[in-house]
């Protein structure tokens, strides 16, 4: 089994409005899979369908080789830990009591409560009532609950939502550690691309309910061809020189953007610009950021 | 597995002040019943049995079902809050066990409540100066009331599961029991779940309201099974909305 999560034409409509459309998710075993998309793109609904919280309208989802349906539901749930929407907690119970409930229902060994408390670093707050926790603590409690039972697959829906920067960093480190330390596959959603850049091995991008990109993170980076930015005193002269050399130049606010050139061609161009009176004073390499790619990927679909 | 489910459900109710309500609220119908008895001594001549008619009059008609509803609403309130539906439904537990474990807890509460009412009945009887002890039959009526209340417990549990509001199911229980009084007086008691507990308890009557235990038993069973099945199917079929 190569993929721990595999969906086929997974779709869902609410009152005639299609919120998830023919999604074919493929999450390889043992990776951190970043599931991205703007708010309202269908991330949560897709994840809920994987867990059976929402019934698929059409298509199917398979977890660890088992199709999600009434018959396989419990077997799948035994192998998954999840944190959906916002952390679930019983406010009048302590953090520890909350975890004890999950442990009993997952039929996990008693020592696991201490283990997960240690893992999310909240041993010292375990006896405080959950409603007194900060959002960051609740999020960690939710993560601890998801880890009970040593699931093969961890599904985390926007786990850093609403956290302060240090909280985000902490959750992020935990997520990166898990596959290595516990051999889990992590499927994590976010609307923040920068976050994925630091955690994910694979990414899927969903927009308006459709999966518009799915590959290794590096493949997404390859989309970001770098360009050169020329800063010149005389733009008209520079553009003329570029035209003569058949190099496409685009005027931007800071200067003229041209496609990347080989070293010798770049050297020749710099010389020509200097000698031709363009007043070249700076050449910079410009990397298209992942945010730009994300925007261009989602933006293009959005305009359809 | 059902047993661990019941255990966790019990844990979820920890640290709640609910018991206080169940301790104090029944004092009200007990007091009202005793006062009524004392004020109508010239009409009420059958001692403990007469006191029972007054004791059960208020309790069975206006308090028992709403108290059950209160408990059921509390059982589900913990799930309606803080996105707990997501967690509840992603645990490897069959929906039937979720519903049944909550039902078992609620049933335990309905029985405990009846026993407490019996204690209050004894105290009230002794306070108004009745001789000896009541016929054990009255205790049996109380427990039969619990049996009849099974139908209402299953119904209230299903209502509180579907309705996110805490108070609405309790109001429905009050309406249901008032309608139950009318139904049982009109002879339709066996067809209305809220009547069954009144009939079981022989509320406000000296002759036995349950003329055929078979009919009473079947009606209770059918209603309880129907509401329980509805609850379980709802859990199975519905898309979960946690907030």
Question: Can you offer a commentary on this structure?
Answer:
By secondary structure, chain A is an alpha/beta fold. Chain A folds into 2 domains: 3-222, P-loop containing nucleotide triphosphate hydrolases (Rossmann fold, 3-Layer(aba) Sandwich), CATH 3.40.50.300; 227-287, Alpha-Beta Plaits, CATH 3.30.70. In chain A, 38% of the residues lie in helices and 27% in strands. Chain A contains 11 helices and 15 strands. In chain A, a hairpin with a 2-residue loop joins strand 10 and strand 11 (210-216). In chain A, helix 4 (112-119) crosses helix 5. The radius of gyration of chain A is 24 Å and the shape is elongated. The two termini of chain A are 36 Å apart. By secondary structure, chain B is mostly helical. Chain B has one domain. In chain B, 74% of the residues lie in helices and 0% in strands. Chain B has 10 helices and no strands. Chain B has helices at residues 2-12, 18-24, 27-39, 48-80, 84-88, 95-127, 136-162, 168-185, 193-201, 213-237. In chain B, helix 7 (136-162) crosses helix 8 (168-185). Classes of the chains: A alpha/beta (304), B mainly alpha (243). The A-B interface holds A 48, 51-55, 70, 74-75, 77-78, 80, 82, 84-93, 97, 100-102, 104-107, 145 and B 4-5, 7-8, 11-12, 14-16, 78, 81-94, 236-237, 239-240, 242-243.
